[in-house]
Amino acid sequence: MLKEGEVRIPSGCAIAAMISTEGNLMTGEKIVKCMVPMHDRSNGLGGGFAAYGIYPEYKDFYAFHVFFDSHDARLECEKFLKEGFEIVKSEDVPIRKIPEITDVPIIWRYFVSPMSSVLSRLQLDDREFVSRCVTKLNTKFDGVYVFSSGKNMGTFKAVGFPEDVGRFYRLEEYQGYAWTAHGRYPTNTPGWWGGAHPFSLLDYSVVHNGEISSYDANRRFIEMFGYHCSLQTDTEVIAYIADYLLRRRQLSLQEMAWIVSAPFWSVLDRPNTREAEQIAYLRKVFPSLLLTGPFSIVLGFTGGIMALNDRAKLRSMVVAEKDDVHFVASEEAAIRAIEPDAENVYAPIGGEPIIFRVKEGAF
Amino acid sequence: MNPLDYVVPHFEVIRNFDRCTNCRACERQCANDAHFFDPKTQTMQCDDSKCVNCQRCVCTCPTHALKIVENDASFRRNANWSGEAITEIYKQASSGGVLLSSMGNPTSNPVYWDRLLINASQVTNPSIDPLREPMETRVFLGKKPSETVRNPDGTLNTDLPPQLELETPVMFSAMSYGSISYNAHESLARASRELGVFYNTGEGGLHEDFYKYGANTIVQVASGRFGVHEDYLNVGAAIEIKMGQGAKPGIGGHLPGAKIVGDVSRTRMIPEGSDAISPAPHHDVYSIEDLRQLVFSLKEATRYQKPIIVKVAAVHNIAAIASGVARSGADIIALDGYRGGTGAAPTRIRDNVGIPIELALAAVDKRLRDEGIRNNVSIVVGGSIRNSADVVKAIALGADACYIGTAALLALGCRLCRTCSSGKCNWGIATQRPELVKRLNPDIGCKRLVNLLTAWRREIMELMGGMGINSIEALRGNRLMLRGVNLNEKELEILGVLHAGE
Question: Which of A241, A292, A314 has the highest number of chain B CBs within 10 A, making it the mutation to test binding with B?
Answer without folding.
Answer: A292
